Amino acid sequence: MSQPRIALLASPTEEARAALALLAARHGEHAPSEADVVVALGGDGFMLQTLHRHAAAGVPVYGMKLGSIGFLMNHYDPDGLLERIAAAEPAVLRPLEMQALTESGATVGSLAYNEVSLLRQTRQAAHLAIELNGKPRLEELICDGVMVATPAGSTAYNFSAHGPILPLGSSIIALTPIAAFRPRRWRGALLKSATEVRFRVLDPYKRPVSATADSHEVRDVVEVTIRESRDLTVTLLFDPEHNLEERILSEQFVV
After folding, report:
1. Quick check: 57 pLDDT over 90?
2. Distance of CA 237 to CAs 26, 33, 48, 127, 188, Å?
3. Helix (H) / strand (E) containing 223
4. Cβ atoms within 10 Å, residue 245
5. Taking residues 70-85, what's their average pLDDT?
């Protein structure tokens, strides 16, 4: 079997750049659009950047941790890279699509592989209404914010906000409030991944709200619609002993 064409991408840190130089000397380099696999060197933030920039190429991504957080990464080892890629297990992710309407009338679209979050922009709590598939479900949520998280993202910000961890491949998304004031006992919901979630900001001038898809922020939103992408998927590659499904399962038994 011929050697796969590898695209090497690295975060700006000195450690990641040194690893890129070492691996490039051993395996060569190709552009992501011409590669059989993309190798991302960095942390989870850099992995998300890589997915946003290169997912359209349809090339699987194998990450190695050279950053502070590496839930989406494999451990770094410069040796045996080709064998590890050949033995890796795929995890297919489907991102969320966000459409945000701003106070100025602009419509902004973005993708999220982890979560879409709405957050208050000032010291005053946000007042939001929630619709699911066009049907009103919560007339007023008073909170610091709210998010919709994918299974891959359920262990990140969602988990910090006391949201549930979702099994990979469950076709479920999490709707999780952030510091809900009223209804005080509302803890969110588990939704089918095909559900269209719409948030309306009830008082956008006095209580402005921003929407963030992964790291892409849109300020002064008045309405945000979120749905799972029907067309776009991305494949991450994991070492068999550290596959993403096992990591998500293990997170639920951490004490």
Report:
1. no
2. 20, 18, 14, 40, 31
3. strand 221-228
4. 14
5. 92
**Domain ranges within the chain, ordered by starting residue:** 6-94+233-251, 96-228
User: Which option is the CATH number for 96-228: 3.40.50.720, 1.10.760.10, 3.40.640.10, 2.60.200.30?
Assistant: 2.60.200.30
Q: Is the peptide bond before 183 cis (omega within 30 degrees of 0)?
A: yes
Query: Any idea how long the chain is?
Result: 255
Q: Give residue 202's pLDDT.
A: 97
Residue 19 identity? A
Q: Which residues, 6 or more positions from 106, have their beta carbon under 8 angstroms from its beta carbon?
A: none
- pLDDT for the residue 11: 95
Q: What is the DSSP string of 82-117?
A: HHHHHHPEEEEE--EEEEEEETTS-EEEEEESSEEE
Ramachandran sector of residue 73 (left: φ over 0; alpha: ψ -120 to 50; beta: rest) = beta
By the 10 Å C-beta count (0-12 exposed, 13-18 middle, 19+ buried), 230 is classed as exposed
The answer to whether the CB of 88 falls within 8 A of the CB of 240 is yes
Is 203 marked active-site?
no
Tell me what the pLDDT averaged over the chain comes to: 93
| Of 62, 64, 87, the residue nearest 240 (C-alpha) | 87
Say which CATH topology domain 6-94+233-251 has. Answer: Rossmann fold (3.40.50)
How would residue 245 be classed by pLDDT, with cut points 50, 70 and 90? confident
| Given the residues 44, 79, 203, 231, the one annotated as active site | 44
